[in-house]
Amino acid sequence: MRIRAAVSAALASAGILLVGWQSGAHVADTGSAAATTSATTSNGTSSGSAAGGGASSGSSGSSSSSGSSGSAGATAQAAGTYAGSLVQTRFGAVQVQITVKAGAITDVTALQLTDEDRKSVQISTRAAPLLRAEVIKAQSAQVQTIGGATVTSAAYLSSLQAALDAANL
Amino acid sequence: MQQTSKTLAAESPARSAPALKSRTFQCMGTVISLALPTATVGAADGGQVLEGAAAAVERVFAGLDAMFSLYRPDSEASRMARGEITLRDASAAFRARFEDATGWRLLTEGFFTPERPDGVLDLSGIIKGYAIDQAATALESVGVEDWCLNAGGDVLVSGSPAPGTGSPWLAGIVDPQDRGALLSGFPLGDAGRFAALATSGSAERGDHIWKAGVGRTEFRRSEFRQVSVAARDIVTADVLATAVVAGGRRMLDWATDSWDVEVLAVLGNGELIATSGFRA
Fold first, then answer.
1. pLDDT in tens, B57-101
2. In whole angstroms, what is the distance from residue A167 CA to residue B121 CA?
3. Domain count, chain A
4. A160 contacts on B by Cβ (under 8 Å)
5. A–B: how many Cβ contacts below 8 A?
6. Is A14 within the bounds of a domain?
């Protein structure tokens, strides 16, 4: 995946250079997304964007775009897919990608990223699988109360809560 | 409803945990326990604070049980179940709880419902949470600020177990596969973000939650064995825990998308699904 992404990014860069050389236009502002735009014809280039969105891109705060290498018909119109800067949130680093067609944003997607520990980063408040070893630990000697599915009066007698209550009489 | 605990001198060995005093009583088919920091209870007045607080909580529970219990032939709920009265004849308090319940049915896309499959109106799914909520008001009115109320495994707290320190109450969550062990812990109150923790499941009472279908409710096994929800208020926590057990993964996502809650769900095979608040 990384190799494919790197190759894709390299091809995209080569395509951009080629376009610039053919048209003789200067790419004056490499930090600007519009300046590095090339026309895209498909959405199959997100891996290239993901590679571009690594630490270097994030730290420089620049945006990059990717295009399929064969499409050299760059125009002034802002069309294509753009990857934004890495933004640190409470869930970890987040990077979004937008798709622009005819000057309008037609799609916004979150690129799947990994943090420095190579763990997948949760980018929403949704519940996710968690190992038992990963939840907040508690020993019954440390807690002040016990939560659980409703216990009947009979079941209470042998419950952890009953033991706690007895200790606090 | 009798007092099941009595006052004894504190004999428990010295623990690092804050010292608490508890009172328990039975109501709504379960046991309710109120714990206060020993510092609050105070030795001077001989535990009068605790006795008064426990009595206030018990009055709230007993009053609501008398009105809403389907196990009491003379309750308003039972008379309605027998068709002797209709909602039109019901008391304002009864209609208000019915309104709460139907509101939650809308908010949970029908996964929380106040109706049994046989069509009988059953508000018990919301009454315990409401009783805990009302008990909080009662405790406030008797001037107690630091307390922990546990009604059959659903927990609401205020303040801290060690008043003035800002340390939260730590609730343990039972492992449904081993009722003598804790699956997780969760801090509540004071420094904690949430004061309420409710847990629903099939571990104790069998599959007691009706699973809602399209246009009808039916009795079906849930994909979740136990679901715990932490929220700011106990009614939200209680209703959502019930709804997620009934509605499965879809309702779980809806709950975390729509409410500020933390959820820990135990699947049938014992595996866990949790929001980030439960991560150590």
1. 999 999 999 999 999 999 999 999 999 999 999 999 999 999 999
2. 40
3. 1
4. 172, 174, 179-180, 182
5. 197
6. no
